[in-house]
Amino acid sequence: MSAAIAPALPAETRAMPRLGTVLETAAAWLLGLVWVAPLLYAVWAAFHPTGYATRFDLTAPLTLANFVAAWNAAPFAQYFLNTVLLVSFVLAGQFVLCTLAAFVFARSASRLMGLLFALVLVQLMIMPDMLIVENYRTMRALGLVDSILGIGLPYVASGFGIFLLRQAFRQVPRELEEAARVEGCGTLAILLRVYVPLARPTYLAYGLTSVSYHWNNFLWPLVITNTVEVRPVTVGLAVFASTDQGIDWAIISAATLLSAAPLLLAFLLFQRQFVQSFMRAGIR
Amino acid sequence: MQGRARLHAWLMLAPAMLLLVAFTHYPAVATLWHSFFSTPRGARPSRFVGAANYAALAEDPVFWQAMWNNLIYALGTVPLSVGLALAMALWVNGKLRGRAALRMAYFTPTVLPMIAVANLWLFFYTPDYGLLDRITGALLGWGPTNWIGSRETALGAMMAIAVWKEAGFFMIFYLAALQAIPPVLHEAAAVEGASRARVFWRVTLPLLGPTTLFIVVNAVINSFRLVDHIIVMTHGGPDNATALLLTYIYDAGFRFWDTALASAATVVLLLLLGLLAAVQFLLLGRRTHYR
Amino acid sequence: MPITRRAALGALAASPMLAAPALRAQTPVEISFNYPVAVGGPITRIIDGYCADFETANPGIRVRPVYTGSYQDSITKALTAAKGGDAPQVACLLSTDMFTLIDEGVVAPWDEVEGVDRAWLDGFYPAFLENSRTGGKTWGIPFQRSTIVMYYNKEAFKAAGLDPETPPKTWEEQLAFAQKLTKRQGDQVTQWGIQIPSSGFPYWLFQALTTQNDVRLMNEAGDTTYFADPKVAEALQYWMDLATKHKVHPPGIVEWGTTPRDFFERKVAMMWTTTGNLTNVKANAPFPFGVAMLPAHKRPGSPTGGGNLYVFKSASPAQREAALKFARFLTAPERAAQWGIDTGYVAVSPAAWETPKMKDYVAGFPAAAVARDQLPHAVAELSTHENQRVTKALNDGLQAALTGRKQAGPAMADAQAEAERILRSYRG
Question: What gap in Å lies between CA B236 and CA B93, rounded to an integer?
């Protein structure tokens, strides 16, 4: 992926790094260290007895007790399943609805469409947290309180997603569409065979954002759900977050790692594909 | 044919628009409507009060402090998070050693749940034996600092967390944009003997214009929206030093149950955001014609 | 006391019979019970267990336990649901939320539920009931209640030449001890003498100081506050002086959440915090520690805190009766004792402290009884109409003073003015 920049650099800088490059690398690493510090700290605190949460002693004994305690404090297995279901439902819904809407917005320049698009953008600014009371009423009228559908539905039509996909679709050359039409493709086929594949990086970036948002969303799921069968993992996590008796960093760290592990792992495993697909789509 | 295409268009738009109206526009309009009525309480029903809720806001010094704090918060977090995001993207897009690990490191804050991470940050900011004090103590010989417990540093401490949370997320967008830039452009610039800095300012940055606009708009919105850590860590304290508009609204709506005041404050916030968005599109919009 | 105990036990024994009427036994009555978690440990599992046991004992009733996050999340959820027409039937919420819940018109008084037993209602500690009653009605049943006590490091006491078995009894002693316990290296402090947390809800800890200075913060009707009383400013001045004048207390705002950890790390020798911390301190303090009643000034004292059980207006008569049975079940002496031992909360009735289980526990761990012994001096936690708004006014004033932005007197006068503005409309 560095191929884009490498030929641009003079030959000698590759042989012997200049001071500037060294400094830059150092700065990049320092920043990386700061950024990953909370995670590193969580790993330290989670795997050691609670007394070592504030003391960095290399001889500290290792333990899994914090994970056991965290796991036992809430039915995490069920919560995980719920979160996965919720995130999948939201993501699938968003991809379908936003693709359809973005496609229309990308290809139309009429004033009415412009107005409608402005209405879509309004959602970028409105704080969903402030609409909780009204949305709860709506959900109750629809009979969707305490259901995964109820947690996810308000987020399925996403202004952010429509905006991103519209931007991506607008960059698709018209000629490609014409060519597909000549080959006898209908509107839907054009969308699926021409537009969607070309917008892959956008889907990835947006998908990732959406997954991490809904994986970590708290207030609305707490309010709209009542039972273990429906609640996502953050609600379980909250057991440790605000207590009368102060903070036990060891157990909070263990719980944080438990709940973030699937996302971290997924990113670790797929980051190569993730970035490459950015690149491939970008060069085309 | 024309009619059918139009029908198709409407059919494709309908599901998204229906949900948007149901869960965003309708409740938002209801909020605006409620801002002109008093808060119903038990036996006392809601009644029309005109602009009284807005007058109450204007008289509340805490509201003005929240507004002022939020301005500082935005002015601090927006340039910092966008600037760092760009630096990060350039670094992991370049030929730096271990860039895959770095990319991962920069991105981790995005996937960590704020409700828990805020408590880990509390350890960093704890006076004396907290991580930050240990580092400043060892490197600079500073004494203990009560980072989130004094009026002078609390807001800055909250801003640092916001930047930490956001920058890696914005980096992804810059990264995508950087990789969409055809290498030919850089090669051409290199052939002409342009320095790296010159290539960056004359070629790369202009091409990143649309992305920058998008990120800045998002950063501005986030600077009014990203308050989870403040609610967990300081509740807007000490003495309202970290109160922002959304924490003010949260307090009014979900702690005082003064839904009318919360609605009025929400309307003010939305107007402010709309205004800011318009200004940004006007100012930055001109520089985004490179596409 | 014996009467109360017998009544409570009798009621427990009788409760399956109360469910007997054939009409209701056929279609099970369903109630949902919202509860927060504010202490560590497998609380959700304990509550689930209680609900299952209750259902076994009362076959005609189904209880659905709903964990609702922190106290703040819980009231948000309860009121959001109530406004959406979907309230729970029973919820454990802060005792101080009483006026808010009444003003929102969502809760019903327990005295009006059919089959209520006055003796049971009167069987709780008066200090806990103070916050549960207003206008002659009982709105809350004490359930997970706490109070403030002092924890001190016995090792540090020894090192400073103090008797580890004699904690400070007065404000003067508290200051003198703190001066001896504060260790300095150059101009840096390595161990503070005392720490009173002031983040989040400083009013609660402050109310201990005002009570000790013999001044009340509000009236029983919850429509008047007395923040501007000179004795209130005096109490605040004492707190401020610990930090700024005597330099035996950390400056600025002291974080509630990290205070126990500061204590374990030997950064502070005496700390004020909730009795709910007892289990935590017992498990994690790496040194012998003592628990003491808060030092007295004009009188000893501390506010109570924690959560009560509320029954919601939207519940049907049958559901209210079921809710009543459930509340009696939860507060039965044996269960209240076990709940206190498991969580560190103060068992809510004298009868609970008379159970063999509790007696054994106290015999092995006398510190557990300190909170109980302090209860006769305890007062109701600050609670008024628009409670959170009024307490915020006080919190802001306290934090402004503790961070050095305002003097004690003006800070309290400002808080009173704001409280007055809020409460004016509630006085007839």
Answer: 38
